[in-house]
TrEMBL record:
Region (Disordered): 348-367
Protein name as catalogued: NADP-dependent oxidoreductase
Pfam families membership: ADH_N, ADH_zinc_N_2
SMART domains the record matches: PKS_ER
Tree of life domain: Bacteria
Organism taxonomic ancestry: Bacteria, Pseudomonadati, Pseudomonadota, Alphaproteobacteria, Acetobacterales
Key words, A-Z: Oxidoreductase
PROSITE patterns to which the protein is assigned, alphabetical: QOR_ZETA_CRYSTAL
SUPFAM superfamilies to which the protein is assigned, alphabetical: GroES-like, NAD(P)-binding Rossmann-fold domains
Start and end residues of each Enoyl reductase (ER) domain: 12-330
Length: 367
């Protein structure tokens, strides 16, 4: 199969398209023929080597954390899926690799694709959807009537988190640039702070939850908007001791993380609020709950651009530039035709995929 390989860590390093062996299927695995894959800043950070202490992948390695496609094979213990099912997933850490034609994913990480989304739209959801869910539902336990501030509302996580917080009944504020104010209001933000002209820490007060995805300065200033008992959850760091313990990191790394996060934890404690770092985890069960929200119309995907698979390195560079509104996707198979299933020669596999509706993406298709 074709796949993009990271041959060695390096900032801005291009991935190499190569022919590699198709992944083996374990007893609990689902083999997915990939139709589309999401592109995330996490991919660029892993490529650059920023996550080597936490995610020590050994090159050559296939990157990519979001997938939508068709089930092409199943392991002996798989009961939830069958060949031909349309699915999506965020493969668990240690088993990523969606920048390829196929990937084997543990069935626990997989969910059926929302019926009202194209493959491209579905591929934009898993990582950002699970991140927002785990911050707002699992960690902060957002309740109706609470006030939630979501930073970078026009980004991938932000566009999803605004919609989820509104669905949970929260009053939502967000920060965004001048050009994106209309977008975030349309997604449900009731208060929008133009970070180019306003200081959010002077405009907002009495918030229950802040979701931070920005820099250390924004993180510190976010403490000012929280009321006593509030929660500051960051997906951009610094990691905290609870995360280090959960990841099973060595004693040296645990101590280093304790020191790195000591300042923000101390300031949070003085203000009577909590600080937590969240590094999202794969969950097919949570994705299934997200599917239900998407099919009900409560949440819609926001895609900036769709790149063809042979321009993946351009897609990564575009993601790294930080200008995207919503998500960036690479497409392996066009969404407005009925492609033949690459795996149709396998025993028991169907000869063709179901027809997919033409994409109605709020995006630019890069050709």
């Amino acid at each position: 199969m074709k796949a993009y390989l990271l041959d060695a860590y390096g900032k801005g390093r291009g991935l190499r398209l190569a022919d590699v062996s198709e992944p083996a299927i374990g007893p609990d695995d689902v083999l997915i023929e990939i139709h589309a894959a999401g592109v995330n800043l996490l991919d660029t950070k892993i490529r650059d080597g920023a996550f080597k202490p936490i995610l020590p992948y050994k090159p050559p390695v296939i990157l990519g954390h979001d997938v939508a496609g068709l089930v092409a094979g199943v392991g002996a213990h798989v009961t939830r899926f069958q060949i031909g099912d349309a699915v999506y997933a965020r493969p668990r850490d240690g088993r990523i690799g969606t920048f390829a034609e196929f990937i084997a994913v543990d069935q626990a990480d997989v969910a059926r694709k929302p019926a009202n989304l194209s493959m491209q739209e579905a591929a934009s959801i898993p990582l950002v959807g699970l991140t927002a869910w785990q911050v707002l539902v699992e960690q902060a336990k957002v309740a109706p009537g609470q006030k939630v501030l979501i930073h970078a509302g026009s980004g991938g996580v932000g566009t999803f988190a605004i919609q989820l917080a509104r669905h949970l009944g929260a009053h939502v504020a967000t920060t965004a640039g001048t050009a994106n104010l209309g977008l975030v209001r349309d997604l449900g933000a009731e208060i929008v702070v133009d970070y180019r002209k306003q200081d959010f820490s002077e405009e907002l007060t009495g918030y229950d939850v802040v979701l931070n995805s920005l820099d250390a300065r924004t993180l510190r200033k976010s403490l000012k908007v929280l009321k006593p008992g509030g929660a500051l959850v960051s997906i951009s760091g610094p990691p905290d001791p609870a995360f280090a313990s959960k990841q099973g990191l060595s004693w040296i790394f645990r101590q280093a993380i304790r020191v790195l996060s000591a300042g923000i934890r101390r300031k949070a404690k003085r203000q009577g609020v909590s600080y937590a770092f969240l590094f999202m985890h794969a969950s097919g069960e949570q994705l299934a709950a997200i599917t239900a929200l998407i099919e009900s119309g409560a949440i819609r995907p926001v895609i900036d651009r769709v790149f063809p698979f042979d321009r993946l390195n351009e897609a990564l560079a575009y993601a790294e530039a930080g200008r995207a509104k919503g998500k960036i996707v690479v497409s392996l198979i066009s969404s407005n035709v009925a492609p033949s299933l690459v795996t149709s020669k396998r025993a028991g596999a169907p000869t063709a995929t179901p027809k997919l509706r033409p994409a109605t993406l709020p995006s630019k298709v890069v050709r």
